[in-house]
Specification:
- The chain contains 13 helices and 20 strands.
- With about 500 residues, the protein is of the alpha/beta class.
- A ten-stranded mixed beta sheet has the order 7-6-5-4-8-1-9-12-2-13, sandwiched between helices. Strands 15-18-19-20 form a four-stranded antiparallel beta sheet, with helices on one face.
- Helix 2 crosses helix 9 and helix 7 packs parallel to helix 9.
- GO terms for molecular function: glycosaminoglycan binding; N-acetylglucosamine-6-sulfatase activity.
- Its cofactor is Ca(2+).
- InterPro entries: Alkaline_phosphatase_core_sf, GlcNAc_6-SO4ase, Sulfatase_CS, Sulfatase_N.
- Belongs to the sulfatase family.
């Protein structure tokens, strides 16, 4: 098991983690990343079944840092009241993989977006440096490209004209130049791209001017067998929305080009300083994204593959080169993986498990949880939209979105994602008045067009319901990785 390789070496490995913001993999979000493919993918392993535990920034990032499911770290959405850099999180900060490595003698460095509410006055301000980070350049608030404030080791510094991804690159290169082989280091680089407002660096504007949004079979289709939020009007979206979807799609790609350049520069700096051979490089995203699927506009927060499937590519000492691996990986696995590769023992309280890089089993069976807790009453229902009378229960409703809301209070769900050699299933239950259920056999229906919840045997549906309940209450890897013995049932 490669996760133990680092234990056998006297010299501890280094880690560089690049965490993008809202980068999909289903809609071609990795296509612009030529340097990532060349310097990480061709030199390491690409995981083709990597998922987030929650399709929203703050909960996902909390899971990434702690190895915990959302119901255990209690950061349930992007607001302070929802636990995003709230009181419970500040307790858990002492249990992140950064805190563990720092305590074991690692130099640690962070630059870019942290949790959405970090640094805002209500959460304590930018003077706070999270435990575990010896050099800290955390973005205050949510992703932006210009007009941002960084907390530089607790000193807030405002910038109006500089491009944030380039600043992160410059900070990382300066840090690498000061590292030596005598002490291992951990770097996390968290650029804003391709998060809204999808702003490319000036040098990249127009590079993909001829690119249009992917028109998969589920693009802008009216679908009445999904949760009510998906089928709310307008459905399908009006024709005048299509140019906007295309603009967003290509702007996202263009914003990623600065990240791709950063990756090449970081790899070159590691190589120049004789650090590359002993460094694990991990490239991933906090969640995916949808653009036009099922007549939605552009956002995340939904249980479909566009939103929950993420890129994950890892290279480093002992890892095979240019390999694709389809074992299911969840973002809660990254914290125990990093700790294990550092030669340390991950705590049993983590819900994820260390990746076994020697595992070549095709579609090794795994059943894991995706959970989301809908937001509402957050001031994002535009008065121009006809349903502003229900702004207590709706969110993310704008004229630019054709007034189609992207979230609601009862857009709250728990999903089982079950992947095995002959099984590729999804089961979701919503916390609404109906306990609405969606169920998809992705082996036969990869675009999730056919909700089979009313077509399967009651016994099968009952098993999924019980397993979901168990996962929503699980704690620790032993409990969360084995929710129930899974029956060998194929949906026909």
């Amino acid at each position: 098991m490669l996760a133990s390789v680092a234990c056998e070496n006297e010299k501890k490995p280094n880690f560089v983690v690049i965490l993008t913001d809202d980068q999909d993999v289903v809609l071609g979000g990795m296509n612009p990343m030529k340097n990532v493919q060349r310097f990480i993918g061709d030199k390491g392993v690409t995981f083709t079944n990597a998922y987030t535990t929650s399709p929203i920034c703050c909960p996902s990032r909390a899971s990434f840092l702690t190895g915990l499911y959302v119901h255990n770290h209690l950061t349930v959405n992007n607001s302070l009241s929802g636990g995003c850099y709230g009181r419970s999180w500040k307790y858990l900060e002492t249990q992140t993989f950064a805190a563990t490595l720092s305590g074991a003698g690692y130099n640690t460095f962070y630059a870019g977006k942290y949790l959405n509410e970090y640094g805002v006055k209500a959460a304590g301000g930018p003077e706070q440096v999270p435990p575990g980070w010896k050099e800290w350049h955390g973005l205050v608030g949510n992703s932006v490209y210009y007009n941002f404030t960084l907390s530089n080791n607790g000193v807030p510094t405002y910038s109006a004209d500089l491009y944030l991804t380039d600043i992160i690159r410059d900070l990382s290169l300066g840090y690498i130049e000061n590292q030596t082989e005598s002490q291992p280091f951990l770097m996390v680089l968290a650029p804003p791209a391709p998060h809204q407002p999808f702003e490319p660096a000036p040098r990249h504007k127009g590079v993909f001017s001829n690119v249009t949004a992917v028109r998969h079979p589920n693009f802008n289709v009216a679908d009445n067998d999904k949760h009510w939020l998906i089928s709310m009007p307008p459905s399908p979206l009006p024709d005048e929305m299509m140019p906007e979807l295309d603009r967003v799609y290509r702007s996202r790609w263009e914003s990623l080009l600065a990240v791709d350049e950063m990756v090449a520069d970081v790899v070159e700096a590691l190589d120049t300083n004789s650090l590359l051979d002993n460094t694990y490089i991990i490239f991933t995203s906090d969640n995916g994204y949808h653009i036009g699927q099922f007549s939605q506009v552009y956002d995340k927060r939904q249980p479909y593959e566009t939103d929950i499937k993420v890129p994950l590519i890892i290279k480093g000492p002992g890892i095979q080169e240019n390999v694709k691996n389809d074992q299911p990986i969840v973002n809660i696995d990254l914290a125990p993986t990093i700790i294990s590769l550092a030669g340390l023992k991950p705590p049993k309280t983590m819900d994820g498990k260390a990746i076994d890089f020697n595992n070549n089993i095709t579609k090794e069976e795994r059943t894991f949880l995706v959970e989301y807790y809908g937001e509402a009453r957050d001031g994002t229902v535009d008065p121009k939209c006809l349903w502003n009378y229900d702004d207590e229960n709706l969110a993310q409703c704008y004229p630019d979105y054709a007034c189609k809301c992207q979230d609601s209070r009862n857009n709250t769900y728990g999903c089982i994602r079950r992947i095995a050699k002959r099984i590729n299933m999804k089961y979701c239950m919503f916390a609404d008045d109906e306990n609405f259920i969606e169920m998809y056999d992705l082996a036969k229906d990869p675009y999730e067009l056919n909700n089979i919840a009313n077509d399967v045997l009651p016994s099968i549906k009952h098993w999924y319901q019980l397993t979901l309940a168990r996962l929503l209450a699980c704690r620790g890897n032993v409990n969360c990785d084995n929710p129930f013995e899974t029956p060998n049932v194929i949906i026909s």
